[in-house]
Amino acid sequence: MSETNRERVPPPEGEPPRRRRGVKKYVMISVVAERLEVHPQTIRLYEREGLISPTRSAGNTRLYDDEAIRRLETILNLTRELGVNLAGVEVILSMKERMEELEEEVGRLGEEVRQLAADRRAGIERRHALVPVTTGPPVKV
Questions:
Q1: Alpha-carbon distances of 45 from 55, 56, 122, 124, rounded to whole Å
Q2: Phi, psi (5° rounding) for residue 62?
Q3: pLDDT in tens, the chain (141 residues)
Q4: Do 84 and 76 touch, CB atoms closer than 8 A?
Q5: For residue 45, how many other CB atoms are within 10 A of its CB?
Q6: Alpha helix locations (H) across 1-141?
Q7: How far apart are CA 124 and CA 31, in angstroms?
Q8: Helix, strand or coil for residue 39?
């Protein structure tokens, strides 16, 4: 099986991760807890509450990538600095995710509008074409 077809799996517990481009680096809960100055039980609580979902190793050890650590930092900032309770954190994180989805949708729609404007300037009406219309030089049939 080639390297590109293999599913990326976190390294076994206790083994340092191999550093290759495009491969996520995972750390265990103790490293995350120390880095963020929080007790590991607090991180486990956030998992039980559904606020985070760490990856699991083959031995069922919780493993955290950079994205999970950033999410934990956000949770801790909301609770420590802003005094938000966990129910509020859940609402805020859900709203943040929804905003990101909507931003992607706005970008896609913006591109569609740009394409329609370019088509209109070029005199192309894609909606009523019997065959797919592409922009570019005319092709002799």
A1: 16, 16, 58, 57
A2: -70, 130
A3: 444 444 555 666 655 555 556 678 999 999 999 999 999 999 999 999 999 999 999 999 999 999 999 999 999 999 999 999 999 999 999 999 999 999 999 999 999 999 988 888 877 766 665 666 666 677 676
A4: no
A5: 13
A6: 29-36, 40-48, 66-76, 86-122
A7: 58
A8: coil
Q: What is the CA radius of gyration of the chain?
A: 24
Q: Are strands 55-56 and 62-64 parallel, antiparallel or unpaired?
A: antiparallel
Locate 97 and state its tokens. Answer: 């995710």
Bridge partners (DSSP) of residue 64 are 27
d(CA 10, CA 58): 9
CB 41 within 8 A of CB 35: no
Domain spans of the chain? 27-124
pTM of the shown model: 0.64
Specify the fold of 27-124: Multidrug-efflux Transporter Regulator; Chain: A; Domain 2 (1.10.1660)
